[in-house]
Design a protein that fits this description.
The chain has about 80 residues and is mainly β. The protein has strands at about 1-5, 15-20, 30, 40, 45-55, 55-70, 75. The strands form two sheets. Strands 3-2-5-6-7 form a five-stranded antiparallel beta sheet, with no helix packed on it. Strands 1-4 form a two-stranded antiparallel sheet. The radius of gyration is 13 Å and the shape is elongated.
């Protein structure tokens, strides 16, 4: 299980977390609308898309996570192209 933490500023009022298993079926799914969700990722490379909304609009960011159950380590990196 991984706890994802929102560090947004400007008082967001809604949250949307999507995940894509880049080594699996490559289909993006929404897994939470909580501010700081707990998610159980399987082994693989996951792209996490996070969107927050407030009265002024929506902002989205993404991060790729590498997760290897045999090493119990989580690796975070940005995908550049």
């Amino acid at each position: 299980n991984i706890v994802l933490t929102d560090i947004s500023t400007e008082y967001p009022t809604s949250w949307k977390w999507n995940a894509t298993n880049l080594l699996g079926n490559n289909t993006e799914v929404t897994f939470s609308t909580s501010q700081n969700p707990l998610f159980n990722f399987g082994t693989g490379n996951w792209r996490i898309n996070f969107s927050v909304t407030n009265a002024f609009g929506t902002n989205t960011t993404n991060q790729t996570i590498g997760w290897n159950l045999t090493s119990q380590r989580v690796y975070f990196w940005n995908r550049t192209a």
